[in-house]
Design goal:
3 helices, 60% helix
Length: 60
């Protein structure tokens, strides 16, 4: 949910600054949608989703 809000805000900022034309923004929006909906975007290199969010503690 938070990622979607962040992406929407970023896309809104791109529209407001008018640096990209409408077609480029639509392509970017489509790319973001596919990225957020693709579960493999959130899997760690070892295939475990927990490795993205949980860091191992280092012995002190």
């Amino acid at each position: 949910m938070e990622l979607r809000l962040y992406a929407d805000g970023f896309i809104h900022a791109l529209r407001r600054c008018e640096k990209l034309d409408r077609k480029e923004i639509e392509k970017f929006e489509s790319l973001i949608d596919r990225w957020i909906r693709d579960p493999s975007s959130f899997v760690g290199a070892d295939g475990d989703i927990r490795s993205l969010f949980v860091q191992e503690e280092i012995d002190k």
